[in-house]
Amino acid sequence: MNKTLALGVDIGGTNSVFGISDRNGSIYYEESLPTREFETPGELVDKIYQCVKEAGHLSKIIGIGIGAPNGNFFSGTIEFAPNLTWSGLVPIVHLFESRFKTKAILTNDANAAALGELIYGAGRGLKDFVSITLGTGLGSGVIVNENLVYGHDGFACEYGHIRVIPDGRSCGCGRKGCLETYTSATGVVRSITELESEHKANSSLVKIADPRADQVFEFAASGDKFAEEIVDYTAKILGDALADFACFSSPSAYILFGGIAQSGQTFAKKVKTQMEKGLLHIYKDKIEIRISTLHDKNAAVLGACSLVWKK
Known about the structure:
This protein is of the alpha/beta class. The chain has helices at about 40-55, 90-100, 110-120, 180-185, 185-195, 215-220, 225-250, 265-280, 300-310, and strands at about 5-10, 15-20, 25-35, 60-70, 80, 90, 105-110, 130-135, 140-145, 145-150, 255, 290. It folds into 2 domains: about 5-115 and about 300-310, ATPase, nucleotide binding domain (Nucleotidyltransferase, domain 5, 2-Layer Sandwich); about 125-290, 2-Layer Sandwich (Nucleotidyltransferase, domain 5). It has 9 helices and 12 strands. The strands form 3 sheets. It has a 5-stranded mixed sheet. It is globular.
């Protein structure tokens, strides 16, 4: 296989996923390692190097893309990521470049996902859009004129931590009322216990010991009234927020990714309806709500590799 390849690495609090892909998005090798088993980031880098070398791809790599929580594009460091065991500033780009002897590029995981959508996913053909990842938290990546918005310090576009409910739900960031506490998968589960409803007592949701967000959407689709209320509540808060965010970059589309987005077009339509209600007149009927087309692929690897191809 005589190809020019990129190594994509997605460092998560639980697992670190990495893989090799070409410009067309074909993945030739993938692996996952438990992040917490490595006491230092250097040990993780060494292990990834070993795996890639043993797989026979080392000489074909022209660059490394890294997605990580609190990953700073400008400094090449992971900065005080709360869900990683490595504290403080982690010089992850330096570690990868020193070990692999090739260029490495870092950004936060949500930005990497947005680039993945731009090059391989639902953002192809769009110049201006926002990728919204609805997972354990809420991540976002803003594309303007086919380029990511980083801000002056590398930490722009943290939509998940824009406060939408004054003095609302407590957030892991230390503040209250952040968007992700309502519209992430975790937020949806919190709504089961925190929302009041006349239908709550008869809902199958309250009988589950450890309910999941996907079950809320499944029960809603089968007619559970309380589950329907939670889905509507989630769509309202997200739709209202997206209406306000439009004032920032006037995107042509919002692309939803993650478990909640996989629930299908019904939720996307609810978000779209609510967003349209709240939009300024100049933005009405101009912004699509799209669902990611990368759900059945390793979006984390492709998004990280996209850093190399975009550069």
